Amino acid sequence: MRHPIVSIAVLSGFVMLAGCDQQMNDEEVERAVAGVNVVDESNLNDIMLTVGDPDEAVAYFRRAVQQQPDRIDLQRGLAKSLIRAGHATEAAKAWTVVANSGEGTAEDRVDLADAQIRAGDWAIAKAELNKVPPTHETFKRYKLEAMVADSEEDWKRSDSFYETAVGLTTQPASTLNNWGYSKLTRGDFAGAERLFGEALSYDDGLFTAKNNLVMARGAQGKYELPVVQMGQVERAQLLHTMALSAIKRGDLVMGRTLLQEAIDTHPQHFEEAVRAMRALESNVANG
Predict the structure, then answer these.
(1) Which of 35, 94, 111, 218 could form a disulfide with 79 if both were Cys (CB 3.0 to 4.6 A apart)?
(2) Which PROSITE patterns match (predicted)?
């Protein structure tokens, strides 16, 4: 709310100077005011990309791009705001304009590949990543490379890229979780368990990693919940996951015991666990 006040105050100063100094003509006043507007616009752009409502940010940058289509910084802002708003396909189109412009950077092309992956265009994303110079060694670039390798089941390249990505960030929890899930899908349950545990050592509130850790343990027949921070609702949900893992392995008695514990633990009615229990009992009754 302070920006308009600052602009008016500074503008008043310029008008006063114009009145006192006959040598400052109208064109010079307009240039001075334009300089103030650029500062205010830059601040507003930053606000829209960080704390602004995602849909409002999209609308703001759409208008800005329509008014000044040659401004790549505004097109970049539109692409970022579309990602924040969850419009990956549109974001990919916007990033394509930015990356292929004369002002496009290697990071812009990485962001383009990210949008394409979010939109499910894995082959196109791989082609874009191949255009990124090898000297552009960033966490995001290698994380995306690992995800593309996963999609192709190229596990050797996947492990290599994940390892590099983890080494390039101080907050590797989500990447370690992704790497662990990669191990889980290829049947390396012990390796997955280790990576999920490591992810939680960086972020003990990451529920996805807790749930994946329980799945990795359950796949190995380890039916005790891991020693991790959890609330009552989380405990019930993790017991439910463990129960489904046991049932999948054919350990029906253990599965029923865990489902009952999940139902008893949850502070409210746990519909998913109740449905699973009914389905299990129905299957047992029907032989």
Answers:
(1) 94
(2) PROKAR_LIPOPROTEIN, TPR
Whether the pTM exceeds 0.85: the reply is no
Give dist(CA 71, CA 19) in Å, integer: 34
Q: What is the pLDDT of residues 237-256, one digit of tens each?
A: 999 999 999 999 999 999 99
6 vs 123: CA distance, rounded Å: 49
Phi, psi of 179 (to 5 degrees): -65, -40
Q: Provide the 8-state DSSP code for 69.
A: T
How far lies 203's CA from each of 169, 175, 200, 209, 228, in Å? 14, 11, 5, 9, 11
pLDDT digits (tens, 9 = 90+) for 96-127: 999 999 999 999 999 999 999 999 999 999 99
Output the pLDDT for position 45. Answer: 79
Q: In this structure, what token pair is assigned to residue 130?
A: 């191949």
pLDDT digits (tens, 9 = 90+) for 227-236: 999 999 999 9
CB 215 within 8 A of CB 184: yes
**Phi and psi (nearest 5°) for 92?**
-60, -40
Q: pLDDT by residue (tens digit) across 4-34?
A: 433 333 334 433 334 444 455 555 544 444 4
- Count of Cβ atoms closer than 10 Å to residue 125 Cβ: 25
Exposure of 264 by Cβ count < 10 A (0-12 exposed, 13-18 middle, 19+ buried)? exposed
- Listed as own residue / partner, the contacts of 115-118 with beta carbons closer than 8 Å and 24 or more positions apart are 115/79, 115/82, 115/83, 115/88, 115/91, 116/88, 116/92, 117/144, 117/147, 117/148, 118/83, 118/88, 118/91, 118/92
